[in-house]
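User: Small ask, check this?
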Amino acid sequence: MKITNKIYKNIFPDLKNWPIYKFANNNTEHKKKLVQIVYDDLVAKYGDNIKDEISKCAYSELKRSKLNPWKVDPPDEKRFWTEIRRDILERNECDNEEYCNFLLKKIINRYVQEIFGDFKISTFKFARTILTYLFNRLFNGIFKGSLFNLWKKQTLRNRLLMTGYIDEVRELFNKGVVVFLPTHQSNLDSILLGYIIDYKLGLPAFSYGAGLNLYNSEIAAYFMDRLGAYKVDRRKKNSIYISTLLAFSKYTILNNVNSIFYPGGTRSRSGKIEVDLKKGLMSSLVDAQYDKINAEDNKKIFIVPVVYNYHSVLEAKPLIYSYLKAKGKKKFISRSKYRDKVIKSLSIVKTIYKIFVSKSEFILSIGKPMDVFGNNIDIEGNSFDNNGNELDISDYFKTEGKLVKDTQRNIVYTKILAKSVAKSYLKYNTVLSSHLVAYAAYHCFMDKLELEDIYDLMKFIEKEEYVELSNLKKRVDKILQVLLEKEKEDKIILSDDFKLPVEKLISTGIGKLGVFHDVKVLYFDHDKKVKIIKTEDFGLLYYYANRLSFLN
């Protein structure tokens, strides 16, 4: 598929016509409605056992507030949940059904107030300018061209690239509700995608889920709260919170707000493309489609898998080391250099310097849109099975010819959707030259040292190990044959770097790999008679090599 730097005009130039603005403009009323919807659902689900659910919720929240508090938590957090628990256990207030229902609504309202975000046009316009500067600095480097150009969008044109079904998504925007389901690599993901949606794709802003931990920063909280973000607190596992979050997702979609959420749940700590997707929020999409059909609303829900492709992920080092520590346990050896505070401080300074002077590029891969059952759709939004036969998706929700809400059946549909999205991630993954050289070099090290896993490799000292360029080239040649075959079969996308001769491809990939890090993920050592390749961090090399782990 063609990779483009094209910039599209916004299909709704007037921000007051954007679905997210119209929704946020009536937030107070929406909150009231959502509280009542969640309340009715929980009462219907738990009936006489609602007291037990409130008790479990209060216990888990009180435990969370003591063991895992965050700066962003409300100042009355412990007091609130202590009072709820006291009302249930000591005062027996929940023996009174009316008061018990009052407590339930009180809890739901607290969650709704927390989850809801807002959308302010003035903040969005200001963010456009600030983010243009930020991403120009990140992807171009401050010393690349004029300082004044860092405020201009055009300087980003060749750094933020796209591929995939762009025109189809733009056409579908007027025919239904578009939901982006991206992979997740960096804390930059939501901000970067939001910027590309506006600047490159020419689409109105989407609602998107942001981890509540990101709101620990007052500056980040201020902007995210006013740019369409809704808050997701992954510490909260109780049934009342989960029901409220799912109801919010469903409610916004029923109100035709386009949405983004990450089915992988959190950032990929290993660097691999997610395949085991969480189905919670996905289930709200299937439920919302049923409700739209039941309400005779002809707007369909269109699912668009989206894949991020970075040469350098800012937080790759802490991600991969937390992954290795969690998975390897005793096998993981954290060497002193990663614990030394002085070196850590110098690393931060060096990383900031690298961001200022380095340049990189980013490719957003937009997968083929599908309906909530994973079926292909055409540019008009019509669904088709694998044989090309047109489908009436209302039939999925019918039993003996009548629409029936079947929770168990919808769970099966959600699993089918999750599998379809995971397959799309692999198919529309854009392989970068940096991914290729990292994967090839990692396996060269493993073969040379006759090792079985990354934990064995971590026992070696980087500066003492190397691979010869000739061996790396042989490995790259073999991998290239596989990748080119997969591209012919329409199973992956290869970046434009793959048009280069092999040696140039290798040097280009090494030059682009992990440019923002305080260490070199791969580099040429020119002191030897034979050209050799070395690394300064086996963990980071493994992280970027994992991008092609589907070849293993």
